[in-house]
Amino acid sequence: MRIVKRQMLLHHSVSAVGGFIGGYSIFNHCDIFPNAQTGNLIKLSHSAVSGGLELVGMTALLFLVYAAGCVFYAVVRRFSRLSMKIISLIITALSVTAVGLISGVENHFIAVLPFVFAMPIQWNAFKNVGGNSSSTIFSSNNVRQAVMLLTKYFLDREKKDLRNAAFYWRTLLCFNLGAALGCLLSLWLGLQSVWCCLPLIALSGFFYYRYESAKIEAFT
Question: Where are the domains of the chain?
Answer without folding.
Answer: 2-219
